[in-house]
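Hi R.,

Here's the chain you asked about this morning:
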Amino acid sequence: MNIELLALLVLFITLAVLIHTSLSLYSMQRIRHELSGRKKLPKAIRNLRLYKMLGLLKIPFERYVDCVPINEIRLNILNCRRCNNIDICDQCLRQGISTIEMDFCPNYQSLLASRKLLSR
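And here is the predicted structure, written out as tokens:
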């Protein structure tokens, strides 16, 4: 094998190792960031009607926070904060109505899907 070919082979192997290491570090950073973000979610959820809605729909709070994808939870929080159906929601939560269609709730379909996912 000539020296140029050997040098190219070493270069390619080095690049492959660097790329693999970089991807591993990136994945670890994303996981660390996601976990730190999850630590803040319970407090954010407890301050919203979303917390009571989880109880009304019999969705275990701890499992919801731990198992539902973080982007979906953040979207549920955002939807709850921006919701214009506060009066209907408060009435529903006060009366404990969970058997009716809650189409007024922007998170209803997502929460039903989460409940199904968490019941497995």
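One quick note: The two ends are 58 Å apart (CA to CA).

Cheers,
M.
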